[in-house]
Amino acid sequence: MIIVDILLGVVFIASVAVFWYRVSLRGQELAAASNTLVETRLRQDFARIRALGSEVLTFYRNEHVREATKYFGGKLLYRLHIFLLRLDNKIVSWLKSVRGNGNGINGSASNGNGPKYSWQDVNPALARKGDVKKTEDIRGSNHTLPL
Fold it and tell me: Of 64, 66, 99, 143, which is least surrounded by CB within 10 A?
């Protein structure tokens, strides 16, 4: 798992470096452009987006297109839902197998039915009632600590 983490870290650093390099190249080009050129380009882009939006809206107002869009959108969302449920089941079964194989946090501390060892097994003195010692910290408040 450490190798995967290191590999992902290297990929992240490389992608940030490539992104920074590409942005620095475009930044020089944009700094050299005049404000009027930028404003006209923005107006042209917004005009294209507005025209595309109005075409899609007029196309969607057709009753057959609207029903087909709802049908396919519903089918797509249903398939996405089923995919996510199957993914969830696979993750749960994988986690159960990890727990059952003893590859948990503490090695073979678990057999799938809960922890094999508890804190009472580690230190039986902690399990006895009344085995506490009153201590006072710097602020003067009382705390109870196990012996």
Answer: 64
Q: H or E stretch including 66?
A: helix 63-100
pLDDT in the model for residue 142? 52
Instruction: Work out the end-to-end distance of the chain between its first and last CA atoms, rounded to an integer number of angstroms.
Output: 38
Q: What gap in Å lies between CA 99 and CA 111, rounded to an integer?
A: 7
Residue 97's pLDDT is 83
CA torsion 98→99→103→104, rounded to 10°? 120
Residue with tokens 């396919």: 72
| Contacting residues for 98 by C-beta, under 8 A, at least 6 apart | 104
Closest CA to 1 of 98, 141, 145, 139: 98
